[in-house]
Specification:
Blueprint lengths: L1 H24 L9 E3 L2 E10 L1 H10 L3 E2 L1 E2 L2 H13 L11 H28 L9 E3 L12 H4 L5 E5 L7 E5 L8 E3 L4 E3 L8 E5 L7 E5 L13 E2 L8 E6 L2 E6 L10 E2 L3 H6 L7 H4 L6 E7 L3 H10 L15 E7 L5 E5 L4 H4 L6 E7 L6
Parallel strand pairs: 4-16, 5-8, 12-15
Antiparallel strand pairs: 1-2, 2-19, 3-19, 6-7, 8-14, 9-11, 10-11, 13-14, 16-17, 17-18
Bound molecules: 2-acetamido-2-deoxy-beta-D-glucopyranose (3 copies).
Length: 369
C-alpha cells in the first residue's frame, strides 16, 4: 500500500517539473502583438491573407513568418491553437468557391469517361451524337496550307487570339452548350515528341509505357482545333481535352457564349513550358475537413522523419543541404492530427493573389524579464 502511494507522488512531481516548470518560470519579453510561448515569440493572424501579404505583415510588426526548424516549435503552436480554440477560425477565404471549382473538375472527369465509354460502344451514333460537333468536311479541291482552317465547323471561326502574341485562336460564333464534344484533333502521328504546344500524347497502355504523339504543328496536316490556345486561368478555360479510343477530343467545360475564344489547359508539361501552372489547392490540401495555417519551414535533417510522417505532398522535392526555406500550409484536424504540404502556385484557380489563409509570425525574444 505505502509503496504504491510513494510511486504515485513521485510521478506527479516529475510531471510538474517536466511540463510546467520550464515554461512558467522563464518568461521572455516579446514585441507588442506577440505572445511568449516557451522560448519563442509568436503572433497568430486569423485574417486570411496571401503569401506576399502575410510576409509583409510579419515584417511590419517586427518579425518574420514563423520558421519551422524544430519539432518542439510546431507542437507548441498546435497546442496553443487548440487551447485557445482557434481551430475554427483558421479558414481559407473563398473556400466554397474553391471546393466548387474542384467539384466541377471531378464532374468533368466523370463526364468525359462516361462519354468515352459510350463512344467506344457506339462510335458516333446515338446517344452521344447530339452533343457532338464534327470537324467540317474538306472540299474536293483545296489549298493544302488552308487545310486546318477549312475543317472549322459551322458556328465557329478562326481569328486573332484574345491572348497577346498567341497568334490565331478558335472562336465560337454562336453559343455552345456545356459538355459539347469537338473533334477529333487531327495531326501527324509521331513516336517522338513533336512541336510542343501542338502535340497531344496518347498512351497506348495503362502503364503509360507505350505512347505516341498527335502533332498538329503543320496546318497542312491538322485541323481547326490546332488554333485552340492555352488558358491562363480557370475563368477563361472553357474546353477540356481528352483521349478516347486512341483519338483526342475536346469537350466544353461550361456553356460558352457567342463570340468567345475557346481555350484549354495544355497539360502539365506544356503548361509549364508556357509559364503556367495549374495546381488546385484541393488536390493537395484537405479543404473539406481541416483548418489551415501558413508558416515557413526548412527541410533539415533534424526534421526529416517528422516531415516524412506528416507531409502530404510526396512529390515535394527539395535540397536538404541548402538552407532554403519553403512556405507550407498545415492542415489541422479536429482530433489534433495534422498534415503539411509545401504551398504551391494555385493562381490558376485562386486568382492572382493565390491562397488566402491565416498565418503565424515570430521574432527572437528580446530579453529575459
Ligand atoms: C491580327 O493580328 C495581326 C498581327 O498581330 C495584325 O496585323 C492584324 O491587324 C490583326 N487583325 C485583326 C482583324 O485585328
Ligand atoms: C504562378 O503562376 C502564374 C502563371 O500560372 C505566374 O504568372 C505567377 O508568376 C506564378 N507565381 C509565383 C509566385 O510563382
Ligand atoms: C546552413 O546553416 C548552417 C548553420 O545554421 C551552416 O552551418 C551551414 O553552412 C549552412 N549551409 C549552407 C549551404 O548555407
Amino acid at each position: 500500500m505505502m509503496n504504491q502511494q510513494y510511486i504515485a507522488y513521485f510521478i506527479l512531481i516529475v510531471g510538474i517539473f517536466s511540463t510546467v516548470f520550464p515554461i512558467h518560470v522563464v518568461t521572455l519579453k516579446c514585441k507588442a502583438g506577440f505572445e511568449n510561448i516557451a522560448k519563442w515569440c509568436f503572433s497568430i493572424h486569423l485574417e486570411s491573407k496571401s503569401l506576399s501579404k502575410s510576409r509583409e505583415i510579419c515584417e511590419k510588426t517586427g518579425g518574420n513568418m514563423v520558421l519551422l526548424d524544430e519539432h518542439m516549435k510546431l507542437n507548441l503552436l498546435r497546442k496553443y491553437i487548440q487551447e485557445k480554440r482557434l481551430i475554427h477560425k483558421l479558414y481559407v477565404k473563398n473556400k466554397e468557391a474553391l471546393l466548387k471549382s474542384y467539384q466541377e473538375l471531378q464532374d468533368l472527369l466523370t463526364h468525359h469517361k462516361k462519354y468515352c465509354k459510350s463512344y467506344k460502344k457506339n462510335k458516333l451514333k446515338k446517344p452521344t451524337e447530339e452533343f457532338y460537333v464534327p470537324n467540317a468536311k474538306l472540299p474536293v479541291f483545296f489549298d493544302e496550307n488552308e487545310r486546318a482552317r477549312l475543317t472549322t465547323p459551322p458556328g465557329y471561326f478562326i481569328a486573332n487570339s484574345s491572348i497577346p502574341s498567341a497568334g490565331y485562336g478558335a472562336w465560337t460564333m454562336t453559343g455552345v452548350k456545356k459538355y459539347t464534344v469537338l473533334g477529333e484533333y487531327e495531326g501527324e502521328e509521331h513516336k517522338k515528341e513533336g512541336n510542343q504546344p501542338y502535340s497531344w500524347v496518347i498512351y497506348e497502355d495503362k502503364e503509360r509505357k507505350k505512347k505516341h504523339y498527335i502533332d498538329a504543328s503543320s496546318p497542312a496536316k491538322s485541323n481547326w482545333l490546332r488554333y485552340v490556345n492555352c488558358a491562363r486561368n480557370v475563368r477563361e478555360e472553357n474546353v477540356f481535352s481528352f483521349g478516347c479510343d486512341g483519338l483526342v477530343f475536346y469537350m466544353t467545360t461550361k456553356d460558352v457564349e457567342p463570340n468567345t475564344e475557346l481555350l484549354t489547359w495544355y497539360g502539365e508539361n506544356d503548361g509549364r513550358f508556357l509559364g503556367i501552372t495549374r495546381l488546385h489547392p484541393a488536390s493537395e490540401m484537405n479543404l473539406k475537413s481541416a483548418s489551415h495555417i501558413r508558416l515557413s519551414y526548412m527541410p533539415k535533417d533534424s526534421l526529416k522523419d517528422y516531415l516524412k510522417y506528416h507531409q502530404n505532398w510526396f512529390s515535394n522535392k527539395y535540397d536538404k543541404k541548402s538552407n532554403k526555406t519553403y512556405h507550407g500550409i498545415i492542415d489541422i484536424y479536429e482530433d489534433g492530427t495534422w498534415t503539411m504540404q509545401r504551398e504551391g502556385n494555385y493562381t490558376y484557380y485562386t486568382g492572382e493573389q493565390g491562397l488566402l489563409v491565416p498565418f503565424v509570425c515570430e521574432h527572437e525574444p528580446l530579453e529575459k524579464e
